[in-house]
Design brief:
single chain, about 80 residues, alpha+beta, five-stranded antiparallel β-sheet, 1 helix, globular
Length: about 80
């Protein structure tokens, strides 16, 4: 497995979800990946990116899950 890929565990609405994140090769001006491919419970959640001080997904997803995944990514990258 690519050494950039990392595991995450999030909790929303009292339920825990496990998954992994694969950061893009493309970097932003601050040197962090511009997007992150996220897989939750073996299913592609989509691509998350951080823009205008908030996390967004390229697919219609529950906002609470997007924010929880974003916080997990922030911990890894110390954003």
């Amino acid at each position: 497995m690519d050494d950039r890929i990392f595991d995450i565990v999030i909790e929303t609405e009292g339920k825990k979800y496990k998954g992994w994140v694969n950061p893009s090769d493309k970097k932003s001006e601050n040197g962090h990946p511009t997007s992150f491919h996220v897989v939750i419970e073996g299913t592609s959640f989509g691509y998350l990116s951080f823009q205008d001080c908030k996390w967004s997904a390229n697919k219609q997803r529950p906002a609470e899950m997007v924010e929880a995944i974003g916080r997990a990514i922030e911990k890894k990258y110390k954003l």
